[in-house]
Amino acid sequence: MMEPTTIEGLHCANCGELLKGEFCHHCGQSVHSVLKPVHHTAEEIVETVLHVDSRILHTLPALFLKPGFLTLEYFAGRRVRYIAPFRLMFVLCLLTFFVLHLVTNEKISRTFEQRQTTVLLDHGQAFAQASNADDVRSILQNKLDALNAVQTFGDSSTFAQAAKAKQQLLEAANRRLAELHAPPLPPSSVAAEGHQTSSFDHPIKPIQIGWLPGFANQRLTSMLQHLRDNWHTYQHGDPVSSEAAKERMISGVFGKLPGAMLVLVPVFALLLKLFYLFKRRLYMEHLIVALHSHAFLFLWLLLCTLLALLAGWLEPHAAWTAYPFNWLERILVLWAPVYLLLMQKRIYRQGWLMTVVKYWFIGWLYFWLLLVVLLVAGALGIAH
């Protein structure tokens, strides 16, 4: 479909209003048709992406380096150049917890690999010291127990690694048994030992809270049952079940954290409203302050995580980078409390004494609220 070369005399296809520009001033619909060739659609997608990128370039540096600047710009009505506060905070929240989840799984997997290497490193010498078949079996069992103990902390790939490591141990043990003219051990001997999963034959007692509706009591009972089952399986299950329970709990916790942080934002805005009650500001103004404060904290946490990853990757190859990275990490850690204090001072425009006192009380109350919310999110995640 051809695009109109002029809008003079045209009427809006949606509401019939006479058009005075490319967008209807009555309903807001564009005069341009959505039925376009593919190459025009691709051009619009590129334009949209570049437009978003330009807003990111205006928003993120100002958010991180200029305390309170974005908030004051919103109060002054200059909003088009910047990403909206809620979208900014929400995207940074999801991105930060996504990266933290990846880093957590990577560290857990690395811990398993290091422990596995330690177990396998000296297996030849250990079995060589065995003087009889019973010693070989005892050494094998000790090393299998060591692998089983750390395997439950690995990710989904570590179970295959552990199976390969156990096979190597079995082969080394059988070589020593052959030298001692003893019968070899069957493959079933490398099966995971230790605690077996004890099933919960009796469900927990149903929760009955009088002022809650029936479905809420049932939900709480189900969550408590899942929490107990997951934790017990993680602690005492076989490696497969334990690893699956660990995956459920970690994924559940990281899945609940973004929602938990969203709950904290309006609560933090309410704290600001109470402490600055006589400033006669609208609650929405405090909410924008809270959104930008949390967006900064998520961006700060993301940068701290990425900086730590970069330092850990570079130091083995260039040891001299340890000194500057240590200083950067210290500066970054100190920047968060300084930034929030300067932001509070700049926005609410009180003297330094009152600003510091209120900053301390708000921070103290927020710390306990954050702790409670994180504990609840952790419990909900374990009950996943």
Kindly list the characteristics that best describe this protein.
384 residues, mainly alpha, 11 helices, 70% helix
General description of the model:
- The protein starts with 37 loop residues before the first helix and ends with a helix.
- Helix 3 (85-121) runs antiparallel to helix 8 (239-275) and helix 9 packs antiparallel against helix 10.
- The chain has two domains: 85-107 and 212-382, no CATH class; 109-190, no CATH class.
- Helix content is 70%, strand content 0%.
- It is elongated.
- It has eleven helices and no strands.
- It is mainly alpha-helical and 384 residues long.
- The longest helix has 37 residues, at 85-121.
Draw up the topology in text.
Elements: H1 38-65, H2 69-75, H3 85-121, H4 123-128, H5 133-151, H6 158-179, H7 214-236, H8 239-275, H9 283-314, H10 322-348, H11 352-382
Helix pairs in contact: 2-9, 3-5, 3-6, 3-8, 3-9, 5-6, 7-8, 7-11, 8-9, 8-11, 9-10, 10-11
| Residue fraction in strands | under 5%
Number of domains: 2
Class based on secondary structure composition and strand pairing: mainly alpha
Rounded mean pLDDT score: 77
Count of helical regions: 11
What is the string of helix and strand elements?
A: HHHHHHHHHHH
List the uncertain runs: 152-156, 192-201
- Taking the alpha carbons of the first and last residues, their distance comes to 51 Å
According to DSSP, the number of beta strands is 0
Query: What Rg is obtained from the alpha carbons, in whole angstroms?
Result: 30 Å
- Which descriptor suits the 3D outline? elongated
Helix content: over 70%
Biggest sheet layout? none
